[in-house]
Amino acid sequence: MVVDEGSSPPHPKPVPSKELTTRVLSALVMVAAALLTAYLGGWAFALFWLAAGIAIVVEWTDMTGIEPRRLVQVILGLGLAAMTLLFLLDVRLWLSLAVSLAFLAIGAFVVSGAQKRIWTVSSFIYAAPIVLIPPIVRAHPDLGILGLLWMFAVVWATDIAAYFTGRTLGGPKLCPPISPKKTWSGFIGGVVAATAGGLLVAWIGQRYDITLPLTFPGIAALSIVASICSQVGDLGESALKRHCQVKDSSHLIPGHGGVMDRLDGFWAVCLIVALGLLTLDPTV
Hints:
The protein is 74% helix and 3% strand. The chain is mainly α and 284 residues long. It has one domain. The protein has a two-stranded antiparallel ribbon. A hairpin with a 3-residue loop joins strand 1 and strand 2 (179-183). Helix 2 (42-64) packs antiparallel against helix 5.
């Protein structure tokens, strides 16, 4: 997620030191967990992202007031778990998706009202890329852990740079009706940092004879697109929270809010990578 930036200079609103410390410590724990499970791969990595996907379904359905809420959360969680299990058992992706869609249909069936059914379906659709794409990238022969590190670098660099650039430089607001604190300076700072981060990952990988299936100009261009999509993903989640009249998707992560608040930008990058995977291997 791209964090909201502060007010315009010359007097940016300071972040209380205790709050900033909490945010940093929570971020370090999350980064360490993501990198460790990425290194381990396999079941550990897939289960890490399954947990994230289930948390997203719970947060989404809590925010939108779906009933019977816990029953729907269990059904959709089982659908995501089936998706993960079938992937780990190397079942064809289309069959994994078919089984998961059956759980989605059941979850939508038990909900009353067309609007609530739409929220139910959208919660699952939002969670599915988070559950599925990172393990697919980790296992992909042309991407592997370097592809994951590129995804992490682009999103994290966007997040950090947008936050500090926006707070330092301020200036015109990016999208006041949705997120009043975000600025164009933060947006541009995020894109620049993400491009540098993406190229750095590719360069380090090349030093260890690990390459991505793109040239350096291609990686720079894709990093720019991914950073923009990451920030659009953040705005999309902000719009959902504003619609539901909540400040955070939950209070699960100290100093950050919920899992959706941390993974909205990563979700958008997962979609970009999914399109790339279809290009690399249309039979996936």
